[in-house]
Write a structure and sequence with these properties.
This protein is an alpha+beta fold and 237 residues long. The strands form 3 sheets. Strands 3, 4, 7, 8, 9 and 10 form a 6-stranded mixed sheet that branches. A two-stranded antiparallel sheet has the order 1-2. It has a two-stranded antiparallel ribbon with strand order 5-6. The N terminus is likely disordered.
Length: 237
């Protein structure tokens, strides 16, 4: 996970009081990039945005932060869990799972809509090794497009529908937060609702899917690379 930033008072605000601002991906990216240029600290590790589990952690932080800003009492806050259907439904629940995962698609147009996939890892960077000054640290990576489905459970259709809209707004408001840690997030849309029965409860479930791009990276030192090449050459002789 990328390192925390102590002072984020100048983070671009994607939401104004009482108004949902419609910003497209290009506008959000430009706003966040302008903010990042003002940072004078090293905010990331080489693997920023590479682990989908980190994204889920950021998501849970966002939901908690949004509810805290709305001063929702702790006992009434929505739960975000990975088990689906949820084991406990004392309050509203959001669950999540990876519905589809493919090598990243590139081309003109929206992210994830291209026709060319990154099917093999590519070079990301080469820097001085932080622990061995005489060596280089090489980073390789491969982009993945992850389609994440979120299921929103509530005891009434009205409550579930309102929570769906709330969740979409939250994802828009905290888009900068995901971008800050290297994740690109694009909404794919809702697939509707259904009634589900959990134990003795009948609940309404709304589903909405987001595409999350990750960069799965790995690192090796220049010496490690030399050792691998040497072993390959020896084995072929």
């Amino acid at each position: 996970m990328a390192s925390r930033i102590d002072n984020i008072t100048n983070v671009p605000n994607i939401e104004s009081v009482g108004t949902r601002i419609q910003m497209n991906e290009i506008q959000i990216t430009a706003a966040v990039d302008r903010y990042l240029e003002t940072l004078h600290t090293d905010r990331t590790t080489p693997s920023s945005g590479s682990d989908i589990s980190d994204f889920f952690e950021l998501l849970q932080n966002s939901v908690e932060s949004k509810q805290a800003s709305e001063r929702v009492p702790t006992e009434y806050r929505i739960l975000v869990v990975e088990e689906d259907p949820p084991e406990v439904v004392d309050t509203e629940v959001i669950t999540f799972f990876i519905a589809r995962r493919l090598p990243g698609q590139f081309d003109k147009g929206p992210i994830g809509a291209g026709k060319v996939r990154e099917v093999t890892p590519h070079h990301r960077s080469t820097i001085e090794h932080p622990e061995t000054p005489s060596e280089k640290l090489v980073t390789m990576g491969k982009f993945y497009d992850n389609w994440i489905t979120f299921n929103i459970y509530a005891r009434t259709n009205k409550t579930a529908r309102k929570r769906l809209i709330w969740f979409e707004q939250m994802m828009d408001v905290y888009n900068w937060y995901f971008r800050l840690y290297g994740f690109r997030v694009v909404e794919e849309g809702s697939s509707g609702w259904e009634k589900v029965k959990i134990d003795d409860l009948t609940l309404t479930k709304y589903s909405v899917t987001y595409m999350v791009r990750t960069d799965d990276t790995f690192h090796f030192s220049s010496q490690e690379l030399k050792d691998v090449l040497l072993k390959v050459e020896v084995s072929n002789n």
